[in-house]
Specification:
The protein is of the alpha+beta class. Among the domains are: 64-107; 112-156; 159-214, Head domain of nucleotide exchange factor GrpE (Nucleotide Exchange Factor Grpe, Chain A, domain 2). The protein has four helices and eight strands; from the N terminus they run H-E-E-H-H-H-E-E-E-E-E-E. The strands form three sheets. A three-stranded antiparallel sheet has the order 3-6-7. The protein has a three-stranded mixed sheet with strand order 4-8-5, with no helix packed on it. The longest helix has 52 residues, at 55-106. The N and C termini lie far apart (175 Å).
Length: 214
């Protein structure tokens, strides 16, 4: 009878041992399984559920899309502005070229209008020349026309280059001939003016053609 009790005790111990091993195996399986919803623990141990796409990522995505749209709008605006400026510049270039052509074509218009009265005086003098008997009056008329024309040239900045009895200057004079002179003070100087030279303001527009003494 004692043996039977001992056998029963061994059987119970064996059964408890088997259950303990099964429980440990089940706990291992549960621990090793990956949870469906992973959690991030705070400092106090509480968990926060993390979704696949967080709100921060969504906000960042929206911001990127907004910036791309804004960049596209700015690019389209700059392209439109460039096209407008290019067209305006082309119109300005054509208008300036046309004005330049007209200016070069009619630049002397005002000058010619102001010189026409002198031409009228010459016409009147020529019409009376054949029938005139007073040569003195005719000469005075020609002198008046000449003086009037000289004043016109001065008003427009044109003046005669002083040449007679002046030292020869290559910047002002063109020597067309040389002649021997007896006076020592005339050697190297201009003794005759074949064609007068003129300034326009301070610029020489025509050199004097002169004869030099030697």
């Amino acid at each position: 009878m004692v043996k039977k009790k001992a056998s029963d005790h061994d059987e119970i111990s064996h059964k408890e041992h088997a259950e303990t091993v099964d429980n440990k195996e089940n706990n291992k399986v549960v621990d090793s399984a990956e949870p469906e919803n992973p959690e991030i623990l705070n400092a106090d141990g509480s968990g926060i559920q993390v979704s696949e796409t967080t709100s921060a990522e969504a906000a960042l995505s929206d911001k990127v899309v907004t910036e791309e749209k804004s960049a596209e709008e700015k690019l389209a605006e700059m392209q439109d502005r460039y096209i407008r400026l290019s067209a305006e510049f082309d119109n300005y270039r054509k208008r300036t070229l046309r004005e330049k052509i007209e200016l070069s074509k009619f630049a002397a218009e005002e000058l010619l209008i102001r010189i026409l009265p002198v031409m009228d005086d010459f016409d009147r003098a020529l019409s009376h020349m054949n029938s005139a008997t007073d040569c003195v009056a005719l000469k005075e008329g020609i002198d008046l026309i000449y003086q009037k024309f000289t004043d016109f040239l001065k008003q427009n900045g044109i003046r005669e280059i002083d040449s007679m009895n002046c030292p020869f200057n290559v910047d002002l004079h063109d020597a067309v001939a040389k002649i021997a002179v007896e006076e020592e003070d005339k050697k190297g100087k201009i003794v005759d003016v074949i064609l007068k030279g003129y300034y326009l303001q301070d610029k020489v527009i025509r050199h004097s053609k002169v004869v030099i003494g030697e």
